[in-house]
Design goal:
By secondary structure, this protein is α+β, with helices and mostly antiparallel strands. The protein has three helices and eight strands; from the N terminus they run H-E-E-E-E-H-H-E-E-E-E. Strands 1, 2, 3, 4, 5, 6, 7 and 8 form an eight-stranded antiparallel β-sheet that branches.
């Protein structure tokens, strides 16, 4: 099983567990660049190096953040990005624990960033976009491996 496959399996499990049980994952797309609207990211460094990210339309990300945090949120603002980054951090941490236990791989996480200044995130050689459909819209997850 590839690390990308492990990441995706763990992602689906964590989305079901922490956000919503009614999701549909669509086929993963291979891209050359991280999509323009993507500005919430977290790096993974060590034995395994990658960049992970999350993006969606503002209203979809707002509902995603509300479902994840169990907080009533009615409009998009800075807290939405922080909550999306928190989910990314939680998921990536659980993913790294899995890699450590199953493959003896030691990596760490960089702090999540929200690059809302319009500066694009830099992709590595293998970049995957994993769209996940919720009843309220699609949230895209990105994994860019070195």
């Amino acid at each position: 099983m590839t690390r990308k496959s492990i990441y995706l399996a763990e992602l689906i499990f964590n989305l079901n567990r922490f956000v919503d049980e009614n999701i549909t994952s669509r086929p993963t797309e291979i891209v050359h660049d991280i999509p323009e609207g993507c500005h919430i990211a977290q790096g993974i460094t060590g034995d395994y190096n990658a960049l992970s990210a999350i993006y969606a339309e503002p209203e979809v990300l707002t509902i995603f953040a509300a479902k994840y945090s169990k907080i009533e949120l009615d409009h998009y603002d800075e807290i939405i990005n922080e909550l999306a980054a928190d989910f990314l951090n939680l998921h990536n941490g659980l993913f790294l624990v899995n890699l450590s236990e199953t493959e003896n791989i030691e990596s760490t996480l960089t702090p999540p960033v929200s690059a809302s200044n319009g500066e694009p995130l830099k992709a590595y050689s293998d970049t995957y976009v994993m769209p996940v459909d919720f009843k309220f819209g699609t949230v895209n997850f990105v994994l860019s491996e070195k």
